[in-house]
Amino acid sequence: MVHRGGNPGLEELHGKLLAASDALKIWGWDSPAGRQRVARRVTWLRDVCGLRPGVQAMECGCGTGIFTRGLAESGAQLTAVDISEDLLEIARAECTAPNITFFQADLEAPALLPQGHFDAICGISVLHHLDMPKALPGIRKCLRKDGRFAFSEPNLANPLNKYYYFVNDEEKRQARGTSPTEMAFRAKELRDCFEQAGFVVEGLAFRDFMHPDIPARLIPLARSLEALAEALPLVRAWSGSLWIWGRNPA
Predict the structure, then answer these.
(1) How many domains does the chain have?
(2) Dist. CA 16–CA 85, nearest whole Å
(3) Within a domain: residue 185?
(4) Does residue 2 fall inside a structural domain?
(5) What is the CATH number of the domain that holds 222?
(6) CA 105/CA 83 separation, integer angstroms
(7) Once rounded to an integer, what is the mean pLDDT over residues 40-64?
(8) Counting Cβ atoms within 10 Å, is residue 50 exposed (0-12), middle (13-18) or buried (19+)?
(9) 1 found inside a domain
(10) What span, in angstroms and rounded, lies between the C-alpha atoms of 84 and 13?
(11) How far apart are the two ends of the chain, measured CA to CA in Å?
């Protein structure tokens, strides 16, 4: 069993390894299907968090800035945070919009981040790297009363995710970009973590059946099948991702 979070040194080393390799390819964001998955997440985050000019937003775990650019295009003032200075260096070079500020911080101990400052906090595939009882209370302190949150995380009920998170072969874990201290979530656990930290969860959705390696010519069919799978109660539980959103109570 891999335990989630609790070792920032290993996460910084993991970031260094990703920065020295082709992180986009490892994560699957740079294929035709992967780029559609990125766009879908950016649209969802911008909508559910109400990102627009005048909004102060924090992106948790920005990595190399894959989502940062799209979020910044909303016009919001965006603070993009990551534990890895190596990944942040790439993100700064890739994302040069004047409304982006990059910040190196450990989200398990985010004392250096401004308290009660942000109207919205969001992130993609970051929480499963963290010790949630440590991280979420600190993240909540950064969010204004009635501020919005939204996160997308890997679903442990998905058979492919389960294989990669429990495989003992270190080479296979590294090829997948899986750090030694990350672990996907089951839906109830993810909801419980937020509610125990004092957040109000407004929704949790099962998303992503289209694999990043789907050939471009098959994407329209894959999107149609994905929409069907996400609508079927018994099938959607096996989705690739869990999308959770809500607010910090007033």
Answers:
(1) 1
(2) 8
(3) yes
(4) no
(5) 3.40.50.150
(6) 5
(7) 98
(8) middle
(9) no
(10) 8
(11) 38
